[in-house]
Design brief:
It contains 4 helices and 4 strands, in the order βααββαβα.
Length: about 120
């Protein structure tokens, strides 16, 4: 199991497209949840930050091992998601945050398949 928080920079003048992107994901939540099963994604949340002229999207996730990557997905919703990604996210802007400590109760870990 891996827990991640990653920041990506939104391209200039793409804020409205990000609004559309997030709405598209919310409007298609049933399809999104199906793809998460293939990815072995237990939790995925997207956060947004606007600071001055810069805008960022943060992805928080808790994922199991050996899941299918979104880039290899055959789901139509993932293809749309990646189209928005290419249009809205600055290339090479990925910044992984350093996980310092993880607090997941034993009963949840057990449910996720992690015995530790």
């Amino acid at each position: 199991m891996k827990t991640e928080l990653t920041r990506f920079t939104v391209k200039q003048n793409k804020s409205e497209r990000v609004d559309e992107w997030m709405k598209m994901l919310k409007d298609n939540i049933k399809d999104v949840l199906l793809t998460l099963e293939d990815e072995k994604m237990y939790i995925e949340a997207i956060f947004r930050e606007k600071e001055g002229e810069y805008e960022y999207l943060y992805w928080f996730s808790v994922q199991g091992e050996n899941g299918t990557s979104v880039e290899k997905s055959n789901h139509e919703i993932d293809k749309k998601h990646l189209e928005y990604w290419k249009e809205c996210i600055e290339p090479n802007s990925k910044k992984d945050m350093d996980l310092q400590f993880e607090m997941i109760p034993k009963n949840i870990r057990k449910f996720l398949g992690n015995k530790n």
